[in-house]
Amino acid sequence: MPNDNAPDQQLEHVRTLIKMGQPEQDEWALSRDGQAMPSRRPVIVPLALWQEFAGEEGLAPWLSSDTELDDTLAAKLGAAPLVAIDFPAFTDGRGYTLARLLRERYGYGGEVRAIGDVLVDQLFYMTRCGFDALALREDQHLEDALRALGAFSVSYQPAVDVGEAIFERRLRENGHA
Fold first, then answer.
1. 55 vs 27, 41, 98, 133, CA distance in Å?
2. How far apart are CA 106 and CA 91, in angstroms?
3. What is the pLDDT of residues 53-75, one digit of tens each?
4. Can you tell me the distance from the alpha carbon of 62 to that of 98, in angstroms, rounded to the nearest whole number?
5. Whole-model pTM?
6. Residue 51 in 3-state DSSP?
7. Interior CA angle at 74 toward 116 and 43, to 5°?
8. Residue 37 half-sphere exposure, CB side, CA atoms within 13 Å?
9. Tens digits of per-residue pLDDT, 71-111?
10. Which of 3, 19, 121, 166 suits 54 as a labelling partner, its CA being 20 to 30 A distant?
11. Please, which residues have CB within 8 angstroms of residue 130's CB and are 6 or more apart in sequence?
12. Which ranges in 53-92 belong to alpha helices (H)?
């Protein structure tokens, strides 16, 4: 049950959201308050608060970059409509690993959203690691972000988005596979 005394005015609303490579109006608010459950729905809340109110409609967790993702937690996250992963600083790359683990090891099929210090120059790499929704930092521009997502047409390494390396694809296409 929501806490009616929760300060909903502390909720963050995403200025720019890109989902599956396209701009989208975000229906989810973001709460960084780990103590009080906002009354507004849908809302993304810290993991511990989401676990406390497990089963309530319109709630999704956000994971800090130091979250220990194990089999038990991954199984619980499987019921979430989306999982947001926080980037406290653009230099903190642990969120990339969390996204890959969710997608590749644990088979999470819902939305994986990057939140926090999300910069335009990171977006392409985030999508390669399994993020399908990107909440840009407030000072980042949508046009630049969309251009950055299309900056590379080919990737050498396999990743979540393309499971084979370029040399494997070339061998297959030339009938050598």
1. 19, 13, 23, 23
2. 25
3. 988 899 999 999 999 999 999 99
4. 11
5. 0.83
6. helix
7. 45
8. 21
9. 999 999 999 999 999 999 989 999 999 999 999 999 999 99
10. 19
11. 99, 100, 102, 103, 104, 112, 160, 161
12. 71-77
